[in-house]
Automatic annotation (TrEMBL):
<keyword id="KW-0732">Signal</keyword>
<feature type="domain" description="SsuA/THI5-like">
    <location>
        <begin position="49"/>
        <end position="263"/>
    </location>
</feature>
<dbReference type="Pfam" id="PF09084">
    <property type="entry name" value="NMT1"/>
</dbReference>
<protein>
    <submittedName>
        <fullName>ABC transporter substrate-binding protein</fullName>
    </submittedName>
</protein>
<dbReference type="GO" id="GO:0042918">
    <property type="term" value="P:alkanesulfonate transmembrane transport"/>
</dbReference>
<dbReference type="InterPro" id="IPR015168">
    <property type="entry name" value="SsuA/THI5"/>
</dbReference>
<comment type="similarity">
    <text>Belongs to the bacterial solute-binding protein SsuA/TauA family.</text>
</comment>
<dbReference type="InterPro" id="IPR006311">
    <property type="entry name" value="TAT_signal"/>
</dbReference>
<dbReference type="GO" id="GO:0042597">
    <property type="term" value="C:periplasmic space"/>
</dbReference>
Length: 348
């Protein structure tokens, strides 16, 4: 073999080696997921309350981040929380206020990306069972349907009752879910009032089945009920999980914020194509009407508003004597670090 060819081969190999040496650090810079396979527990996935989670799943955003996510759907947020506390799920897609209730019991859980900036929960009374309804006091001794006892729908109902001088013990709570079962329970007369999310509440409202007495489906309504911004659906997990799996939590935040970004410009047709047919509850037009009503309550960027945790704490402490505000460390309830990086990446 000629010497010149040998030298040329050497230089080609050297150049190739140089490229390899440059490329390897770049590959190593990609964060390794500590837990690429994980489970998320959610209470009532069909509700608009958790629409960002559904969009992230349906459009493959979790997969794009290298995650294999199993979503376990429960009847309500309280049951989803139990799954995470019990260890059968890694992360909860649930109400922000659950982190407060948990910390009050000396269990540190942390929210790391927000899905909703308003609870999207409305409370209404049955026009069939309570046609002469005059005020909240009329609910004494009545049956109130909630997604599940201990859920955020239960929390809103407790708040409405407490402001009228009633206690949770003055009524009977019935778990009805957030889909067809909730519609049936109200329309068949099994419950006298209902605290629930959309699309259920809009469907009942537009058919004249309920009279709305409290509404947090809009930012204005949320301000009136809670007196400030109220963080709602979020991804939260044990603080230890967040600390040990930062890359995994970042990937989850990326997927959710990607979904939030998509929802900012999605049209009715896009929504219909993205969600499972069963979510429409047999009425596409009413489903879309419901979406229009709650659209502004979906977080635009995944960030928990600065005053949000305090608003949530004040609301819960107003009716739950076990929650002592002075013992709650608001800064430990959440972190915006992951959502902020996701916001920057997706320009949300």
């Amino acid at each position: 073999m000629p010497a010149s060819l040998t030298r040329r081969s050497f230089h080609v190999l050297a150049a190739a080696s140089g490229v390899a040496l440059v490329a390897v650090p770049a590959l190593r810079a990609q964060p390794k997921l500590e837990k690429p396979r994980l489970s998320i527990a959610v209470g009532g996935k069909a509700a608009f309350y958790y629409l960002p989670l559904t969009i992230a799943e349906q459009l493959g955003y979790f997969r794009d981040e290298g995650l294999s996510v199993e979503i376990a759907d429960f009847a309500g947020g309280a049951r989803a929380l139990q799954a995470v506390v019990g260890g059968s799920a890694d992360v909860c897609s649930g109400a922000f206020e659950h982190t407060i209730n948990l910390q009050a019991k000396s269990q540190l859980f942390q929210s790391f990306v927000l899905q909703g900036r308003a609870p999207q929960i409305a409370m209404g009374v049955s026009t069939r069972n309570l046609p002469q309804y005059q005020g909240v006091a009329d609910l004494r001794g009545k049956r109130i349907g909630v997604s599940a006892p201990g859920s955020s729908t239960n929390m809103v109902a407790n708040l409405v009752l407490s402001r009228a001088g009633l206690k949770a013990a003055d009524v009977s709570y019935v778990g009805v879910g957030v889909a067809a079962g909730a519609l049936t329970a109200l329309r068949s007369g099994q419950i006298d009032a209902i605290s629930n999310t959309d699309p259920v509440m809009t469907m009942l409202e537009q058919k004249g089945d309920v009279k709305i007495i409290s509404d947090t489906r809009t930012l204005k309504g949320t301000q009136e009920v809670f007196g400030g911004p109220m963080p709602a659906a979020c991804l939260y997990a044990p603080a230890e999980f967040v600390q040990k799996n930062p890359n995994t939590c970042q990937a989850l935040a990326h997927a959710i914020v990607h979904a939030l970004k998509w929802l900012q410009t999605a049209g009715p047709g896009d929504i219909i194509k993205a969600v499972p047919e069963a979510y429409l509850l047999g009425d596409r037009a009413l489903y879309l009407a419901s979406f229009d009503k709650v659209r502004e309550s979906i977080s635009p960027d995944g960030l928990v508003p600065a005053e949000g945790p305090k608003t949530a704490l004040n609301a819960i402490a107003s009716f739950d004597t076990q929650v002592k505000p002075e013992r709650i460390d608001l800064d430990k309830l959440y972190t915006n670090d992951f959502a902020r990086r996701a916001k920057d990446r997706f320009k949300a």
